Every structure is written in C-alpha cells, then in structure tokens.
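step: validate -> pass
step: tokenize input -> pass
step: predict -> running
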Amino acid sequence: MKTKNNKSFAVIIFYLLVAFLVIFVLTSPAAAWEDHTSLTLLALADSELSGLTVNVTSLEDFIYEHETELALMLDQLDNYLLKKVENYPALPPELRFAFNRGNSPAEKLFLALRINPEYRLQYYLKAPPGVVMDNRKELIFSDMAIIPYNYRYARFYQIAPGEQVSALEVVATAADEPDYGFDIGLFEDSGTSFGNIYGFGAQPFGNPQISYSSQAAFHMGFYNESPLVYLASPSLKRCYPEMRALMFSALSRFAFIHGDEYWGYRFAGWGLHYVQDLTMPYHASVMPGSSASKLVWVGLLDLLGISGPYNQLVNDVSNKHLLLEMLQLERINSLYSKGDFEHSLVRALQHNSVTETSFTEEHLRDLIAFNARKAGADVDEALEQVIRNRELYESLHEFYEIENYDIYEVSYAPDTEQFVRFQNVLETILTETSTHSKSYINWILSGAATGENINTLE
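step: predict -> pass
step: emit ->
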C-alpha cells in the first residue's frame, strides 16, 4: 500500500510541474536584452572592427552575384545543422533556395532560412545612445518591425547601397535586428501560410494566439534544465537560438569569402543577437531562482484551492525578466549618452579577456547558456532587493507601455545602497555578454580569413 501511495504522490507532483510549466511559458516575455546595439558597440569597441569602413551592398545584388554558390552552401548548411543541432528539423525540400517560390531574391533567401518572409528589410544604422545623425533620413520603428513595441531611445537612420559606413556600426545595428520580427509566426499553429510549411511543428511553448510569443523558442535556450523538467515538458528541448547563431555565422563567412564585407558583417550581427540572448539568465532557464520542490509546493497549494502563491510565482518570474531588461536599457543608455565610459558597467562590457579556448559550436549550450542558467539565482535575488515600489512592480508590463515611464519609480536608483547588489550581478552578466560576443565574432572572422566554412567543417 505504501508503494502505491508513493507512486500516486509522484504522479501528482509530476503533473503539478507540468501544469506550472504550461502556465509559465504562456506568460513569459520573448525579448532578452532591450538594446543589443549599445551592448555590441561597447563590447567590440577595441576590436579590429573599430575604424573599419565597408561599402553598403544590396541583398539583391549579393544574391544575384553568388546565386549558384549560395544555393550549394545553403544545402550544405542544412546537412551541417542536422549534425550539429539537437532537434533541428530538416529543411523541407520545397524550401531549398534553388527551388522555392519566393517573390524576390530576399524572400527566396528568407524562405530558405525559415525566417519571416514578410520582414521588411531596410538599409539603416541604429544610432548610438545620445547621437543624432542630422545628415540622414530618420526611419520610424514601425517601418521595420513586424509588431512594433515601445522601444525607448531607439533611433534609426537610412543608408543606401554604395555608401561607406562603419563596420562596427553595421554589426551593432544588425545585432538588434532579429527582435524586429525574424522569428514571428513560424509554427504550424501560428496562423501564417509560411508557418504551415516551415517544418517546425506546433509552437513548443508560449501562446500561439499571441503573435509575438512565437519568437520565444528562437531566442530562449533551455538547454540545461533538470531531467524532471524535460520529462514534464519535452517540448522545452525544441529551442532554436543555437540554430540561428550557427546559420548566420555560415552566411557571414560565405559573404566574406566571396568579397562582400557589408553582408559579412550584417549576417555576423544577426547571429550575434542569439549568442547575446543566451547570456541572459531569463533566456537560459525556465525558472531562475526557483527549485522544482518550490514549484511542487505552490502547485500543491493551488490544487488545494490556495492559488495565491502559485500565481505570484508565475507573475514574479515574468516581471523580473522585464525589470532586468528595463534597468539594463536605462543604465547603459544613460552612461553611453553622457560619455561615462569609465563606469564599472561600461567597463564590464569592455572586458578585455576572451574565453581560454576559442569559440566552438558546443559553447552555445555547454558554456554560454550553462553559465547564464547558473547565474539565475543570483540575479533573481538581486532584482528582489532592488524593487522599491512593490505595487508598480506587480503591474510592470502595463507600466512598460507608458511612453515616458521612469523605471526608478519601480526600483531603487543607482546612487542607493540597495542598487549596489543588483549592479554587481549585472556587471557579471554583461562581462559574459562581452566575452562571448568577442569570441563569436573572432571565430567568424578567423574562419573567413582562412576560407573555412561549413563545407570544410562537416
């Protein structure tokens, strides 16, 4: 009888955890860092990109000039990703670059890469904080983003093929770009025509009825959860930032090897976005700061009709994720705009050392995402300490939508003792972001310099 009771209790615990994970992923935001451009400008400021200029070329010209070689490389890329990326769904044959029915060269490429073919590709630079490019036409965010959101401080300026622009600014601008709609609507239950043919299946987590939630699986890497978590929710393994980082690195090297530096740097920036996302603890762990036993306990209370602790836990994870983004955006923007490059937060991003070993494909899961998940408990505790106004914090998602919100109405200000613990933890995370940004870009450039790409790595 005791064995039977133990088994019944284990089953209850298991289903409580399943229920938590379902609810959690329905409420999680999909963005990571609010401003990849500033992070990249600071992280790569002392790299070989600084001072380099490149000639802007159109994607159409790039494709036309290298169409045959590109078709072959993309077929090799699919085979490469099948070997390198766990749970990678093979590209459906009708989407191969040589055969798909894209209405333009750009759409043909987007279909072969399985990004949103409705993305409105623009030629632009995202201005550093505090910079106004008076000599250029300013673009509005809705000109680019498939689903515009409240993006504070962001300013975009048009460039044109034939111009000479900064290589560093190309990478930094591109590093922000995947958040504008690359990965929206790609699943068979997304309600899009392309989602039905892309082969990713049903959305693995998040609510398919909320369009922006469909990008979460491409920007979150739950690669290091406990076996119990995967047993409760196997679909959490279907995460694709690793796929995107490797895919765009191959395209970047292809462009460099074929003499197109602009697209080499732009593709590198696109891939860098996903690397940086994996340094964000709330993108590398389902539940930073919460153990499975805590989830079972609050789930059991919920089963008994006491729902407060359960709902609070779900809301807290979501709000802390957003609070970390908002504070990062505010602090880096403020310091950059003032030119305060000696501040410890900026110096963390300009961290000079690179990982002891060069970047490898395995680092995405086993080092970058692993370290971010490990930092989850510390960042959860630090965010808890920095909350000043609990009432505003509890409604943080609504507060975020206010155009001129002041985040320090929610949290303690930077000059307070309460902010110090949070800042120390943020510096540690940003050091990781800097280190792996440099390592990834160096890996791409060194491979391109020796002619090494997926055709030589397989």
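step: describe -> Residues 2-457 form one domain.
step: cleanup -> pass
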